Predict the structure.
Amino acid sequence: MKNFFFLCLQFVIFMIVFAAGSLFPPFHITHVLTATPSYTHVFVADGLILMIALYVLIVIFQAMTKRLSRAVPWTTIAVVLATIIGLYLKFGFITHEL
């Protein structure tokens, strides 16, 4: 029960970091996906990078507290779910029309 609660909490935190990094990009890392004379599709990767950095920090903290075998699988599930749902909700995708 406690593991499921932390899974949900981490999922929400990862989604917030992904959305915030996509809406307010601190690094301005963008990839042009499609460019035509009338529109340009761009992916802002800052939210994804911030979410992965947060995941690495959480795993390092779990390694320092010696909870790798118990906690890391739940954290990995949370980050994968947040990535899939965030990309489905099109976090980071921008269309510029001329």
Summary: The radius of gyration is 16 Å. The chain is about 65% helix and 15% strand. The mean pLDDT is 95.
